[in-house]
Structures are given as C-alpha cells and as structure tokens.
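Tokens in:
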C-alpha cells in the first residue's frame, strides 16, 4: 500500500472520530442525565481530541510524492 493511500485511510479514521464525537456530545447533552451523561461526554471529548490530532498530523505532514 502506498503512503498516500495510507494517509487517506488514516484521515478517514480521524473524520469518523470527529463524527462520533458530535453524535456522543449531542446524546449526552439532550438525552442522558447524571453520571452516564458525564461518562459519554468524556468519551466524546476524547474522540474529539484524538480525531483533531489525527487530522492536524495529516494536514501538516505535507503532500506525498
């Protein structure tokens, strides 16, 4: 597998983490209450940070030759 294809799949994983984070944040704010909302919110923010780091890495690693 080429480097550019690998970067594409890694960026898709980052986008999936960001979409999951959006869904979990909405779920924790509007549907859940109490301790469970806190756990889901923490998981959402972990996904948000992880997805953001992946996307930042892909963007700043530059083009592949």
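Residues out:
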């Amino acid at each position: 597998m080429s480097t550019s294809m690998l970067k594409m799949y890694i960026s898709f994983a980052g986008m999936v983490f960001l979409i999951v984070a959006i869904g979990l944040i909405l779920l924790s704010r509007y549907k859940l209450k109490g301790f469970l909302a806190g756990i889901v919110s923490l998981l959402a923010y972990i996904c948000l940070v992880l997805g953001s780091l992946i996307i930042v890495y892909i963007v700043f690693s530059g083009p592949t030759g």
